[in-house]
Amino acid sequence: MKKIIISIIVVCIAIAAYSQNPQQTPQQGPKTMKAAPQQTKLQAGPKAHSPALKKVYDENIDPLKQIDQAVSQAKREGKFVICQLGGNWCPWCLKFADFISKDHEISKLLRHNFVYIHVNYNPKQAKKDKAYEEKSKKLLKRLNNAGRFGYPVFVILNGKGKVIHIQDSSFLEEGDGYDRAKVLRFFKNWTPAALSKL
Q: Can you list the domains of the chain with their CATH numbers?
């Protein structure tokens, strides 16, 4: 009887301790416990109470034509092109799109310096569909095989359509989300004005 009472007391203490700090929850991956991230970071992983993220990739357009049109626009406007390569199948791709759209400073920086496009590519579909695989090979070649870094991956093209930088998105992460300071630093360092100083 004493063992049962002690067990009940231990459970009650654990519940009380958890209820005083509900932000500390077990996380997936190598870390077992992690404090809630700062507001500058974007939460990873689907949550039952979070709204569905907007699908930003148009799966019905030719990505090579999309890139060519963006390059033409960038040349006219004195900007660079950023291709966010990924797809609606990729939660991290949609989360990044959502993250930058909700930050006024980042959005303004992008508008003034880049033609920003979401370039659709689905590696699983490429394995199943021969016609899609052939088109995808041309796309990946055009973007210097940027998919080797995972998704999303960011490819910056100059006004002539030349790839001048490929950014692995994992370097923009912090904990379970994207780090605002890292994202801003990346975009600022690859503006036409920043490169003109070289």
A: 2-34 (no CATH), 63-196 (3.40.30.10)
110-135 in b/e form (b: 16+ CB < 10 A) is beebbbbbbbbbbeeebeeeeeeeee
> Within 13 Å of residue 1, how many CA atoms lie on the same side as its CB?
0
Cβ atoms of 85 and 153 within 8 Å: the answer is yes
DSSP characters over 154-177: EEEE-TTS-EEEEEEGGGGEETTE
Phi, psi angle pair for 3, to nearest 5°: -60, -40
Q: What H or E segment, with its residue span, contains residue 80?
A: strand 80-86
Task: Specify the DSSP class assigned to residue 156.
Answer: E
Q: Cα(61)–Cα(54) distance, rounded to whole angstroms?
A: 18
For 78-88, how does the pLDDT look when each residue is reduced to its tens digit (9 = 90+)? 999 999 999 99
Predicted model pTM? 0.74
Whole-angstrom CA distances from 38 to 96, 150, 195 are 16, 25, 32
Q: Round to whole Å and give the CA distance between 141 and 59.
A: 19
